[in-house]
Amino acid sequence: MTAPAEQAELVRLALAGNKDAFVELIELHKDMVFGLAYQNSPDASEAEDTAQEAILRAYRDLRKLRAPERFGQWLYGITINVARERMRTSKLTVPLESAPNCARRTMHQNRRRKKTGSSPRSRPFPRNTGCRSPSAMPEP
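-> C-alpha cells emitted (140 positions)
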C-alpha cells in the first residue's frame, strides 16, 4: 500500500483533472472495495454492481473528500453505505410455492392479525418450530 502522502497527491492530481491518477487510486483499493461489496452482497454479480456504484460515487464526490490522505477510509465508507443501501432497497421475493411450510404459516398468521387487529409476536419465526429466518432460507 502506498503512503498516505502519496495517496493525497494522487487525489490532488485527480481533482486537477488527471483521470490516470484516479485510476491508480482505484487500483490501490480495488481488492478492498470488491471484498467489502462481496461480503455484503448475496452473489458475485451483485457485488460487482455494488463495487462499481461505490467507485462511481467516489469519482463523482471526490471534491467532498476533506482529508485526501484518508482516501482509502473514505472509499471504505462509501462502499459500505452503497452495499447497505442496495440491500435495503432490493426486493428479495420467494414464490410462495417454494417457501417452507412454516413461512406460509407465518404469512397466514400475519394476515389474520391484520384482519383481527391483534398485535404480532415479537419474533415472526418462533424458536423450536423448525422455521428459519427469511435470510437463512435457500434460494429457489
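Confidence is low (pLDDT under 50) at residues 125-131.
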